[in-house]
Amino acid sequence: MRAIENPQLDHTLIALADPTRRAILRRLAEGEARVTDLAAPFAISLNSVSKHIKLLERAELVERRREGREHILRFRPEPLTAAQAWIESQQTYWTGRLRALDALLTAEGGKEREDE
To answer: HTH arsR-type domain: which residues (predicted)?
Structure first.
């Protein structure tokens, strides 16, 4: 299987890799929020939360708008659809490969799989 470059998918998976960023996305899934409100539940600085938000923006998982001095964020689920499609393709590929390996081992007299 040849690696295909997909920077957007890379950004999405990197963004999802951190529990703080996932918590921010869970909160934004409920509706828009100000950056300061998003930062409140975390025991980290506002600057650190802003860095997490920048990674979410780079992945296009959140969109920012300004209202005066306030920065309002909203969740954008579209990049998750692409990530889900990639995960499903990997699952299909590896399930097929493992079934082929199992058939080969069985044909060569290998140990048969036990029913689960």
So the answer is: 1-95
Number of folded domains in the chain?
A: 1
Confidence of residue 4 (pLDDT cuts 50, 70, 90): low
Q: Give 12-40 pLDDT, tens digit per residue.
A: 999 999 999 999 999 999 999 999 999 99
- 47 phi, psi to nearest 5 deg: -60, -40
Q: Is residue 91 part of a domain?
A: no
CA geometry: angle 76, 42, 87, nearest 5 deg = 40
What's the token pair of residue 29?
């899934």
Q: How would you class 114 by CB atoms within 10 Å of its CB: exposed for 0-12, middle for 13-18, buried for 19 or more?
A: exposed
Burial of 38 from C-beta contacts in 10 A (0-12 / 13-18 / 19+): buried
